[in-house]
Write a structure and sequence with these properties.
The radius of gyration is 24 Å and the shape is elongated. α2 packs parallel to α4, α3 packs across α4 and α4 packs parallel to α5. It has nine helices and 23 strands. With 353 residues, the protein is α+β, with helices and mostly antiparallel strands. It folds into two domains: 220 residues, Rossmann fold (3-Layer(aba) Sandwich), CATH 3.40.50; 119 residues, RNA polymerase II/Efflux pump adaptor protein, barrel-sandwich hybrid domain (OB fold (Dihydrolipoamide Acetyltransferase, E2P), Beta Barrel), CATH 2.40.50. The strands form five sheets. Strands 7-8-9-3-10-11 form a six-stranded mixed β-sheet, with helices on both faces. The mean pLDDT is 91.
Length: 353
């Protein structure tokens, strides 16, 4: 069933959010964007100042004029999987997972059978007799997933499920989640673009409590319209007004007011808002304005230098260039230095914002 939320939490969130039946939505955004607030509202842990929350025909929350309604978290049909497993330390793995069906009224034997089924589903049935203190981080998180699913939720909420795992456990959990989330309505808050690529059908990008971008995963990452999504996709992004030959960059900064030439996607119309995207690997760095064939030359000031994929990533605010260590040494690059980021027009994609 469809989950719909229209919520305003003063100073933290103002958004319309929907999850279609069987859809997994990845919510991304910088720290403080409102991701945890969105999950808290959906789970019933936070009452918005105004709006409504519905799961199918069931009203979970409503505060609109004289209308008021509220369904407590345990009666919503919504399960929240937190960053930490939060298993009951005094119960076995089996009884941890059986807790939800037992609380819903199932007999002890039936609830344990339900628990075994879900432990098998997450490849953790062999852990049934252990206590949480005997589990690794990855094992504990798999058990937490089983416990959440044993409640038979109509909507599953996952808050950074891989955040506390090491680099070996995270891929295993990701593969398991891909299997158990198939055909299930779910929301996953994450900072990892791999989670979105492998687990989600759709991406929602939050910034300052508002949805600034949403759409199918590959569409958002392939044609980002927000600086955050562009960073996830590994692209430089400039916003401005579409022109006949590219984009007129708007906003503050050294590139503001500059014309950038590029290839239009066919939907970007002159005079309309648009964005220009190009990868850091396509950018060359020059200490002086170069001459020769037509290229985009962006005056920038270096803010940071960092190792990246065997080379050096030169950052200038929100823009980046990838060059070799030898080139960096030859140019004598350092933070605070004024240089030009140069990129060929053929490497710049312009599309409607």
């Amino acid at each position: 069933m469809t989950f719909r939320m229209t919520a305003r939490v003063h100073g933290r969130l103002e958004a319309r959010f929907t999850v279609a039946p069987g859809e997994t939505v990845a919510v991304l955004g910088p720290n403080g964007a409102g991701k945890s607030t969105l999950l808290a509202v959906a789970a019933g842990l936070l009452k918005p100042d105004a709006g409504s929350v519905r799961l199918g025909d069931k009203v979970l929350f409503e505060r609109d004029g004289g209308k008021h309604g509220w369904v407590p978290p345990h009666l919503r049909g919504v399960a929240l999987l937190a960053q930490e497993p939060l298993l009951f330390p005094h119960l076995s793995v089996l009884d941890n997972v059986a807790f939800a069906p037992r609380s819903a009224g199932q007999r002890r034997a039936t609830s344990r059978e339900t628990a075994r089924r879900w432990l098998a589903e997450v490849d953790a049935l062999d852990l049934a007799g252990r206590r949480p203190g005997q589990l690794s981080g990855g094992q504990a998180q798999r058990v937490a997933v089983a416990r959440a699913l044993a409640a038979e939720p109509e909507l599953l909420l996952l808050d950074e499920p891989m955040a506390a795992l090491d680099i070996h456990a995270a891929p295993q959990l990701r593969r398991m989640l891909k299997r158990v989330l198939a055909g299930r309505s779910a929301v996953i808050v994450t900072h990892d673009v791999l989670d979105a690529l492998l687990l989600a059908d759709r991406i929602v990008v939050l910034e300052k409590g508002r949805i600034v971008e949403e759409g199918p995963v590959r569409e958002v990452l392939g044609r980002p319209r927000s600086a955050f999504a562009a960073g996830l996709a590994g692209l430089n992004l400039l916003a401005g007004t579409v022109t006949a030959g590219g984009l007129l960059v708007s906003g503050p900064g050294d590139a503001g007011g500059q014309a950038v030439s590029g290839t239009s996607d066919g939907e970007a119309l002159a005079g309309e808002p648009g964005v220009a995207a190009f990868p850091p690997s396509a950018v060359s760095v020059f200490p002086e304005l170069p001459h020769g064939s037509p290229r985009n030359c962006l005056p920038v000031v270096i803010t940071d230098l960092e190792p990246h994929a065997g080379g050096i990533r030169v950052r200038a605010g929100e823009l980046a260039a990838d060059i070799t260590p030898a080139a960096s040494a030859e140019l004598g690059l350092e933070p605070g230095m004024a240089v030009y980021f140069v990129v060929k027009s053929a490497e710049v994609q312009v599309y409607a914002a």
